[in-house]
Design goal:
The chain is built from 7 helices and 9 strands. It is an alpha/beta fold. The protein has 2 domains: 152 residues, SPOUT methyltransferase, trefoil knot domain (Alpha/beta knot), CATH 3.40.1280.10; 58 residues, no CATH class. Helix 1 links the parallel strand 1 and strand 2. Helix 3 packs across helix 5. Bound molecules: S-adenosyl-L-homocysteine. The site of S-adenosyl-L-homocysteine (SAH) has 19 residues, from strand 5 and helix 5. S-adenosyl-L-homocysteine (SAH) binds next to strand 5 and helix 5. It is an enzyme of class 2 (transferase).
Length: 246
């Protein structure tokens, strides 16, 4: 079944953009997923087709109008019953691999992309829209955030990635960063691949990888370590790799 993405944007020509290449592009071409681009401006009603207005209370910039956005959102909700509607905003819940997996397991996703100073807050009160942030920094628009979200979802769709298990083995899936990777040449600029990875001893390799995942997470992302304090009990997923040690 096709996983259906809809993007509500003032810049539909930004899509599929990078999602038209590589894994996501191939999956789009073979209808593993579909992409609908909805021009928000088509739902404006005045003769200037305006979608924004000055901020109530004063201040810089412009704010996207609730009435225009609601018409666009209602149109998509009607066309796609049961598909969750998200809005990209730095005020939203942080995008996590957990949310990505949940979305990828569902029928698809609709994404409202903000521009200017953002979206009239009343829209979030009046419609079932989940605000989502891609991180604690400010982008110029929601489109690149939507591309990030879609890329993360599409690679999890059945058949998109080469190895069926590799998606379950990566950073965050077990609440940890992934262990570090190495490949040939064995020696490069005087540095050797860790000996254990050449041992052929799968249990030892798995234990080493798990240990590195825990260590690196503790060092680089103490916040993750705290949040997933008991996750290190997960089996070291790398042990399942077929081409290991070759
Ligand atoms: N004035 C707003 C930022 C507006 S940026 C604020 O300070 O919160 C314009 C648009 O870019 C937003 O409406 C949103 O759709 C998108 N955007 C910017 N940063 C984002 C982020 N970290 N995550 C998701 N969307 C973001």
């Amino acid at each position: 079944m096709t996983w259906r993405a809809s993007v509500l944007t003032l810049y539909p020509e930004m899509f599929p953009g990078p999602l038209g290449q590589s894994l996501a592009g191939r999956a789009l071409a073979d209808a593993t997923w579909s992409l609908d681009r909805v021009q928000i401006r088509d739902f404006a009603t005045d003769k200037h087709r305006s979608v924004d207005d000055t901020p109530a209370g004063g201040g810089a910039g412009m704010v996207m109008r609730a009435d225009v956005l609601a018409r666009a959102v209602d149109h998509v909700l009607e066309q796609r019953p049961g598909v969750p509607m998200l809005a990209m905003t730095p005020r939203g819940q942080p995008l996590t691999q957990g949310l990505v997996r949940e979305l990828a397991d569902g029928p698809g996703v609709s994404i409202l992309c903000g521009r200017f100073e953002g979206i009239d807050e009343r829209l979030f009160e009046a419609r079932p829209i989940v605000p989502v942030s891609v991180g604690d920094y400010i982008l110029s628009g929601g489109e690149t955030a939507a591309i990030v979200l879609l890329d993360a979802c599409v690679r999890l769709l059945p058949g998109v990635m080469g190895a069926p298990t590799s998606g379950e083995e990566e950073s965050f899936e077990a609440g940890l960063l992934e262990y570090p990777h190495y490949t040939r040449p064995y020696e490069w600029e005087g540095r050797r691949i860790p000996e254990v990875l050449r041992s052929g001893d799968h249990a030892k390799i798995a234990a080493w990888r798990h240990q590195r995942a825990v260590e690196d997470t503790r060092l680089r992302r103490p916040d993750l370590m705290e949040r997933h304090g008991d996750a290190p009990g997960h089996p070291p997923s790398g042990a399942r790799r077929e081409n290991e040690g070759k």
